[in-house]
């Protein structure tokens, strides 16, 4: 009888971590920056149907890179968790820290399970507070650990290089236009030192704006408003605070789903959008 092939637990975990990291690195980067009036999300994403940045609850947003169907299931589960907790207790009881803990338990369980492959995703959960000091930004790698971030954070692609670039240039009290310019500059720098050009059509941009009078602080920046910001034009307070009707149609990107779809505590691929992920190129398979 042949001797069974033995792999040490340490080696098995290293192999699983390497597998997940390679999958995440193939995705395009997402940058999250704190600015004077809120939190800015910028992703290199030419798709207008498959979002990397989404609203979860009133003051909470979600950003992700990696395999689309996996992080889409996590997003849907997060929306369900937030809605249920807000309905059962109080809307103020829904926090980014609580949601990050739920995601950490899910990712950690999947990563340590030998029966299924680790998720090839890295998440950011952010919550805007009444003041900049109250903002919360959490990064969740593939293994379910939680990292409390401040100022700026990048995930996916050349995350280390982008993070170093942001750390050396980001400052407190930046305007929205200044923060967006810095985020785009960091995304256009390649590993060899050269620079690319990213247009408004290649970017997905959203903010959690603490000045908005609405209870829901999430807003996508699209079309002419994004173009003007990229050109360095700072929006007026009224324009930034008020939501344009056509933009706010996309505030919550929860797709149609059956009752059997995945929740925050389960794996699999329950999203209808995920069915198109393989056919949607790099932005769907490795977003």
CATH class call: Alpha Beta
Order of helices and strands: HEEEEHHEEEEHHEEHHHH
Looking at this structure, what is the CATH superfamily?
A: Aminohydrolase, N-terminal nucleophile (Ntn) domain
Class inferred from helices and paired strands: alpha+beta
- Architecture (CATH level 2) name: 4-Layer Sandwich
Quote the beta fraction.
Answer: 15-25%
Total beta strand runs: 10
Helix content class:
25-40%
Radius of gyration: 19 Å
What sort of overall outline do the alpha carbons produce when their principal axes are compared?
globular
Q: Give the strand order of the largest sheet, numbering strands 1, 2, ... along the chain.
A: 8-1-2-9-10
Give a short account of the largest sheet: 5 strands, antiparallel
Q: What's the average pLDDT? A: 83
Distance N to C terminus: 46 Å
* Low-pLDDT stretches: 237-284
Number of domains: 1
Oligomerization state: single chain
The helix tally amounts to 9
Q: Return the CATH topology.
A: Glutamine Phosphoribosylpyrophosphate, subunit 1, domain 1
GO biological process, one term: modification-dependent protein catabolic process
Family: Belongs to the peptidase T1A family.
Protein name: Proteasome subunit alpha
Organism: Streptomyces smaragdinus
